[in-house]
Amino acid sequence: MGAENSKSQPPILSQPWREINWHRDKQTDLQFVKNYKPQVKGQQLRILLHGPVGAGKSSFINSVQSVLQGRMYIQALADNISHDSFTKKYTTYKIQKESPNTFYPFVFNNIMGLGPNKGVLVDDVKLALKGHIKDGYLFNPVSQISEDHAFYKTFPELNDKVHVLVLVICADTLPLLTDKFVKELLEIRKAASDLGIPQVALLTKIDQACPEVKEDLKNVYKYEYIKKQMEKLSAEVGIPMNCIFPVKNYHEEIHVDNDTDALLLSSLRSIITCGDDYINFTKQQTSSDRYA
Fold this sequence. Notes:
By secondary structure, the chain is α/β, with parallel strands linked by helices. It has a single domain, classed as P-loop containing nucleotide triphosphate hydrolases (Rossmann fold, 3-Layer(aba) Sandwich). Helices cover about 40% and strands about 10% of the residues. It is built from nine helices and six strands. The chain has a six-stranded mixed beta sheet with strand order 2-3-1-4-5-6, sandwiched between helices. Helix 2 crosses helix 9 and helix 3 crosses helix 9. The longest helix has about 35 residues.
């Protein structure tokens, strides 16, 4: 599919439509992530990944860990065969820093993928946004979690709630999105927006969607095909272009790569920044209400 699409693409642009300094920006973004500390003491920034089955949510978590560890790292189990969601439980992933028993102040929550048959229910995603689902909950694709369930948290604390919602979706499957699926994405996006939660999108598998990008990842912002896929996603679900990031997850490599790292870190920095802005804004609103 990618090869067929790329044949109709214009010659490579002399200048990329989005600027990125592959070496300098990688180092700057890496330092930002390593130095990040929430302004609110004891705060843990919670990042919820959602999207269709097989989009690369687990692979993104592993890829981020690989970048920060400087080596291939696999914690979130991924599957390359099943057509159903490989992720069944609501799982929180912490990322360890260089020192033993120390972790970055942000966590990823992986959730069962959206799917036509055995995917996560939209209502469960909404409850996860509010912090009502406990870690380890086994999703039921035919029935949402009930309030009397052992894994339902009636009174979520601030750290239980989601601070940034990340849609993970494949570049080569965008043309195949059904109306039903888009409707579910819009419903989830509205629920997050009503809560004030910022949203970011990751366009994965760009190397599979565009052969020229597979040949050289630095071509990602020089070919119109990737840009058009991002524009399509933006038009379908309403996420602004500057909140959509093309990334390549690690899936066949045995060593980390500078260009892959650069794209991953660029997206991660924006995700953290969005979540941190939300935390700070929420704190300001709470303080204003207290002294009103």
